[in-house]
Specification:
Blueprint: H1 2-19, H2 23-100, H3 102-108
Family: Belongs to the taxilin family.
Keywords: Coiled coil
Coiled coil: 34-96
Length: 112
């Protein structure tokens, strides 16, 4: 696609040069076109540099977010494990309490 555009532009330039009478006019037209293309190239280079900086920044941010997510997943996993351990411990305490004091449980729980 880019080559087609360049080819078309070259054809248009050649057609416009063929319409000119003197070699000086042709040279002037070529120099103007060269200056335009050079300015366009410089502008494209600046834009590319800006976009590369932005890309680098976005990639760094992505890495940071992935690291944060990994840490959050690990913390969640640890918390879930601690929660299960606490629930087991509470059940053990409750079972031990019920076994050691059956008369307290009878008094506390009224019969219907």
């Amino acid at each position: 696609m880019i080559l087609n555009c360049s080819g078309k532009e070259a054809m248009l330039l050649m057609q416009s040069l063929n319409k000119l009478d003197t070699p000086e006019q042709k040279l002037e037209t070529i120099i103007k076109k060269h200056a335009e293309l050079l300015e366009e190239h410089r502008s494209d280079q600046k834009q590319m540099k800006t976009l590369q900086k932005k890309l680098l920044q976005v990639m760094k941010e992505k890495d940071q977010l992935q690291n944060e997510h990994s840490r959050a997943v690990l913390a969640r996993s640890k918390l879930e494990g601690l929660c299960r351990e606490l629930q087991r411990h509470n059940k053990t305490l409750k079972d031990t309490f019920v076994e050691s004091t059956p008369h307290v449980c009878q008094i506390v729980t009224p019969e219907l």
